[in-house]
Amino acid sequence: MNRRTIHSLGLKLRVTRLIAKGLVSRDHPVLVHMIPTRRCNLSCRYCNEYDSTSPPVPVKELLRRVDLLAKLGTSIITQSGGEPLLHPNLEEVIARVRGHGIVAGLITNGYLLTAKRIKQLNKAGLDHLQMSIDNVMPDDISKKSLKVLNKKLELLAEYAEFQVNVNSVLGAGIANPEDAAVVARRAVELGFMGTVGVIHDGFGQLRALNATQRKVFDEISSLATHSFGRINRLNPYQRNLVEGKPNDWWVCRAGARYLYLCEDGLVHYCSQQRGAPGIPLENYTVENIRREYRTRKTCAPYCTISCVHQVSIMDRWRDPQPLLYDPAALSGAADPPLIRIQS
Ligand code: SF4
Ligand code: SF4
To answer: Of the CATH numbers 3.30.930.10, 3.20.20.70, 3.40.630.30, 3.90.650.10, which one belongs to the domain with range 3-330?
Structure first.
């Protein structure tokens, strides 16, 4: 049995445990996205989550944040950005995550991956890496192309001991929807997971897909063979959005089951709703989690943030959500504001 297989079996066991823990209790975050640096080495036109100047957050502070998240009972911590590989001590942070028994993830544009860096990530104990590839050839909108990143995928296939998920995207600004299927097929060919996401606007909201885009979504979903890929295929929220339908929920579990921890150490609902609630992590308690678990968000019916969909599925059986208002009334709003209503 090689190291990748051994790691994969261990990860399956830990994921099973975290699902069981999430089913027993709703008082802890399942997934936290943490920002070790806001800076990015790219500038994708559709992105509002980066700058080109921010320094890395000092490693001591990042380790303190990981310890606080462990105290809250967090199950998965994923490093995101900006581009997290720009952080010089990223591996130390990942090792601290694993030291707490927490599943460690990383979302990267892949540009800085080398054989040496992949081996360092192996050593740190990284569990899961996600790389988004937007097109086959780079264009004005995005340089995250298969042409540039295929070499990085080959390096990952050769050296990575962690799981790799290649995410392709559909939606506004992506010139050729068929590119997403080419990317997904290449991912599966190399033995990786292939998922597809729907690009959102600056408020995390849906822009309807056309018939070609919907066809490509179905094709990629049928390629997904792995458990994470199956989540993509079975995600009922994503399915409705692809068909242009709102989802029948008013409480996403952001702020409770999912936290977005920005570079300043503040907890937000998600990358698209920064500022709410905007509470320093050291002041975030189980009372905040319980309150946000029940807070209604008007952005929920057309929200495309798939990681929040995925963690929210965990609680659908225990707290089903009837539709309390007509989502058609929201669909005309160009910039739907976030409205927090305590239930
Ligand atoms: S690589 Fe990621 S963080 Fe950087 S600009 Fe593109 S989408 Fe934004
Ligand atoms: S529904 Fe939740 S995850 Fe989606 S944009 Fe609103 S606060 Fe963020």
So the answer is: 3.20.20.70
